[in-house]
Amino acid sequence: MFSNIDHKAVAALLHGQGCANILKTVLDKREISSVSTEPLINTILDSFSLALSFVNSHNPQPHHQSSSQNMACLVPRRSSKKKICGIKGLGNYRDDFQIPRPDDGFTWRKYGQKTIKTSRHQRSYYRCAYAKDRNCNATKRLQMIQDSPPVYRTTYLGQHTCKAFTVQADTYGPEMIQFDQVVSESVTPQLATIEQQAIVIENKATNHTTNQECDINDFLVDFDELWLNEFPPFSSGDPFF
DNA sequence: CAGATTTGACCTTA
DNA sequence: TAAGGTCAAATCTG
Fold this sequence. Notes:
A four-stranded antiparallel β-sheet has the order 1-2-3-4. The protein contains five helices and four strands. Helices cover 29% and strands 12% of the residues. The structure holds a DNA duplex.
């Protein structure tokens, strides 16, 4: 039988599926101009992220997993806390063990980090390591959206023109879903090809829900309430959950 | 010393 | 003017 965590993970996935179906309806009806899809997309992303976080917390990976096996990119060449002994505010530094090590088939180089006003977590900015060499304009943003379990939202921008690596994408196959990543990312680089906002969702769900015709905003309101009921905050101090 | 990360400063945009 | 995005000097490590 499902454990409580399984139940929550399934519930989160179902919510994401419902939102994806609504999004599909919106796209099919060409209602993009009249309805903002961004909140819906974000809701979908959060749904999958949380579901993955539940699964991940339920099935923890061996902590000693070798980073050289499948983390060919975004792995710091050394400790990310080079100034850990400094006298600056500790809030500017983070523990590396919480940072996801995405293996999305591309090599990324961090070029910035900012504190976002709407989030108490910092956002990291990455660009393709071959940005200059191969004139690749692909970038990605990585931001923690939940503390415990740690959930990260990854946003891909631009298009990879470097064709750096394709092995991982081939491994995952053409039906890869790209969304927020939890600890270890699984991303299809080829899908991140929309010029501006490159969060890509390929929802293969065929189980249509009854919420497809309702207004997106109404659904989101209901979803928020349901979300709080289903997933009480892990941390009372986190304003986003 | 090369190459990567950190982080304050600067730029852009709404 | 504030907030987000980017730049680049400083710093660190192999």
